[in-house]
Amino acid sequence: MHVTDLKLFIRDVPDFPKPGIIFKDITPLLRNAAAFDTVIQQLAGRYSDEGVTQVVAIESRGFIFGSAVARSLGAGFVPIRKPGKLPWTKRRNEYILEYGSDALEIHDDALDPGDRVVIIDDVLATGGTALAASTLVREFSATLVGVGVVIELVFLNGREKLGGATPVQSLIRYD
Ligand code: AMP
Questions:
Q1: Cα of 123 to ligand 1 centre, how many Å?
Q2: Predicted pLDDT at 98
Q3: DSSP letter (8 states) at residue 71
Q4: Residue 58: which CATH number?
Q5: pLDDT tens-digit profile of 115-148?
Q6: Which residues contact 15 (CB under 8 A, 6 or more apart)?
């Protein structure tokens, strides 16, 4: 079954994890089989003719969607994680978050120059996280086909931060 209004499955949680942040809670969407299926079909569908070889997803909610998109595209899955979580030799990129600053890491052998990559995350806010992930992907000389997110907080201009060279797909937008 196809769900037409995905926004109905996003719960706004004010002042989480900090005062002033309205947290977009995706758990109502995840627990609804039809809504979850619609999200994966739409995210993956955009890239079905793009020859994607690897889906790169960002810890931790990005993993939920990224692995399902990878399976749908017949692509591999590559995790990007917070510092100290990955066991092997890795590369790091520092970035600014909507609530604080952080760094992301990826394994040294995660991608090949010939890879065609889609980056998946749950929310695009200021774009700092997606920019850090795309910088890491490009360091491998892999081709970044696009960034796919479930939710875009349009008013935070993350799309502009990523630059015109990176196509961004979002399924649910808040202006
Ligand atoms: P940003 O780097 O500002 O684009 O923030 C994106 C990252 O932070 C994503 O990995 C999201 O999971 C998380 N995030 C930022 N803002 C929110 C929000 N309002 N609700 C839920 N997650 C958020």
A1: 5
A2: 60
A3: H
A4: 3.40.50.2020
A5: 999 999 999 999 999 999 999 999 999 999 999 9
A6: 21
If one counts every other C-beta atom within 10 angstroms of the C-beta of residue 121, the result is 24
CA gap 57, 64 in Å, rounded:
9
To test the ligand 1 pocket, which listed residue (63, 81, 95, 98) has its Cβ within 8 A of the most ligand atoms?
A: 98
Note whether 112 and 142 are within 8 A (CB).
yes
Q: Which domain holds residue 109?
A: 50-174
Res. 99: pLDDT tops 70: no
Q: Is residue 141 within 8 Å of 168, Cβ to Cβ?
A: no
Q: How many domains does the chain have?
A: 1
* Residue 12 domain flag: no
DSSP per-residue codes, 4-70: S-GGGG-EEEET-SSTT-EEEE-HHHHT-HHHHHHHHHHHHHTTTTTT--EEEEETTHHHHHHHHHH
- Look at ligand 1, atom 23, and give the residue with the nearest C-alpha: 123
Q: How far apart are the C-alpha atoms of 58 and 157, rounded to whole Å? A: 19
Give domain status of residue 107, yes or no.
yes
pTM over 0.90: yes
